[in-house]
Amino acid sequence: MLAFDRNPPLSAPLRYFLSAPLFAALAAALLLWQGGDALASRWSPATLALTHLLTLGCLSMTMVGALLQILPVVAGVALPRAALTTGVAHVGLCAGSLLLAAGFWLQRPALFQLAMATLLPALLMLLSACALGLWRHAGELKQQARGGASATVTGIRLALAALAVTVTLGGLLAAAFAWPAGFARGAAGVAQAAAAWSAALFPGPADAPPLLAQFSVLDLLDLHVAWGLLGWVGVLVAGVAFQVIPMFQVTEPYPHQLTRWFGTAAFALLAALSLMYGLGDGLPRQTVALLLAAVFALFALTTVWLLARRKRPRAEPTTIFWRCAMASLLAALLVWLLPYAPTARPLALGVLMIVGFGLSSINGMLYKIVPFLVWYHLQATPARAAGQVPGVNRVIPERHARWQLGLHLLALALLLAACYQPALLARPAAALLCASCLALWWNLFAAVRLYGRLNAVAPKGAAQASA
């Protein structure tokens, strides 16, 4: 039950959708320039820079654009001061992503300070607007829940909460780069207070360290990655998939039991995993990690099963993108649970989650959402009366999407191999990824250009009067 009468202006989501591939192309260009050195370690400045260009500039950019479209249409939620919020958040996310990547690459505290001053207000403004919109429409959302439309709304709520956790952890880590000396003194004081507090609440053997005293900066980094990729991106992609896979891929709906508890289970297990980090790398933490992996594996396997039974037998490019995303998610979960090759493993895990799962998912979404939005908004223009509006599947020709799909799959395969042979394969993989992202941007831009051209078509009566 979609409320298209509440559609936001076309420019609201499209500005995010058009910006995302450019950030991914910029990350690929940085890898092309640096070559194998950027894949020598997960801690290298170039690796951190291109990772945040992909996660903040590309994945989060697309997720925010999808939220701006889904909240009013699917959930009926109107954001307060939507035009101002979307504009400011877009500028802040673009500028902040560039500044943060430059800070990692150049290792300049001033750039981290500017990035925090730009990113944090924009993301907090977006989170506040979404939270206020969801609170104002709580009554309508309860009615939708009775009608079975709660899965996507629940996913959005939990993904936004995960984004808040991700931003908090990321802000703490960025502060360590922005103000190194002051952060070290403050962190030491906080650690002492937290250790004393946890020792009082959770007394243990005399020779055992307090619970919270076992947290380290590396633990915060691991949790930042987990909450960002699994909580923010993973839960939101699943919530969107519950809506767009049956709608655009012509499949059966997801099983009700899965849509009902997936988001809640994933969020609860992420919270439990965060607490388990205080106990060290033992059986409890490994058990929670295994359960978390099982939840996401079930979502991936269910999606693959639905796509295999879709009502259109011929696989479209978007279908293959979704299959690639689910295969990458399953492979990433396997790599995460079976550690080996300590240098290459984190890099391969990042490639599978960011490029394989995240980037493939947004490709699968954008090639359906953008043509549909362009087609829908053209229905209210004179071009429709003139019979000039093409069908949804002709807004972006399928052959163009297939070319870009081929580039994407080759880039993903070479990037995975480059984690183990960086000197030999990093630059060819980067070139293919850059070409794929620029091809995606061009296909989306062509759809927007088509809208601009047809939107400018004059009504027949006006054309005859002017003649």
From TrEMBL:
Superkingdom of origin: Bacteria
Residue ranges of the TM segments: 12-33, 53-75, 87-106, 112-135, 156-179, 225-246, 258-277, 289-308, 320-341, 347-367, 405-423, 429-451
Keywords, in A-Z order: Membrane, Transmembrane, Transmembrane helix
Keyword Nucleus on entry: no
Keyword Membrane listed: yes
Protein name: Uncharacterized protein
Organism per entry: Rugamonas rubra
Taxonomic lineage from the root: Bacteria, Pseudomonadati, Pseudomonadota, Betaproteobacteria, Burkholderiales
